[in-house]
Amino acid sequence: xxxxxxxxxxxxxxxxxxxxxxxxxxxxxxxxxxxxxxxxxxxxxxxxxxxxxxxxxxxxxxxxxxxxxxxxxxxxxxxxxxxxxxxxxxxxxxxxxxxxxxxxxxxxxxxxxxxxxxxxxxxxxxxxxxxxxxxxxxxxxxxxxxxxxxxxxxxxxxxxxxxxxxxxxxxxxxxxxxxxxxxxxxxxxxxxxxxxxxxxxxxxxxxxxxxxxxxxxxxxxxxxxxxxxxxxxxxxxxxxxxxxxxxxxxxxxxxxxxxxxxxxxxxxxxxxxxxxx
Length: 277
Known about the structure:
Layout: H1 2-16, E1 32-39, E2 46-51, E3 68-73, E4 78-83, E5 94-97, E6 108-115, E7 118-125, E8 134-139, E9 154-161, E10 169-176, E11 179-181, E12 189-192, H2 193-196, E13 199-209, E14 214-222, H3 224-237, E15 260-266, E16 268-274
Parallel strand pairs: 1-15
Antiparallel strand pairs: 1-2, 2-5, 3-4, 3-6, 4-5, 6-7, 8-9, 9-13, 10-11, 10-12, 10-14, 14-16
């Protein structure tokens, strides 16, 4: 009888205490986010400045359009970046060189961004890339013809030689008809030379192509700091929040004053191939 009474009391307490609770979550202070790129190719240089958004904020990430942005190399050459004058919403927050320039292999570049009296700096060295020798393609052996569309799935094949007597790090980007593509939304394609090996004979792309598509692969040299940044970023993006997962933390970067993001100096090698029968 005592046990029955305890059960009845417990049920009564559970039902009586049911009500909606509004959580008063403390919003963290907005932080500056800076993404920058300097390469040895014309047209690749840019700096993007935004702010982090609050947990409950809707819409696009807040863009910073009033920053003072410059890049200086280790010989004293300075390049000013001005806010992109385009009217499209996607262009807001992007800064482009006032005068076109190419980065030089072996130079160290320093980024300076001033926002509302606060100064943010970063440094990165522009290393050489071993380069892509050639591209090929084949029907991916794990894919079959689509009986409805009669479409075959092709993968681009990468051929290159990577010297093993030095430490090198790379970032890869894959384009289909000038559109950047990934296999999964959270994918970042980067590697060190130990993973790649010395001779790469037909490394398959992670994205697929149809006949008459143009496949383009861009290979970026990155510093060790860049490699660590992308390693942290991928871990953060793929953290499932499970019981045994490590608590999420910001990626290690090369920016000062608590800014998020990364400033990257890279040599770039680009190869394209048309997928034909």
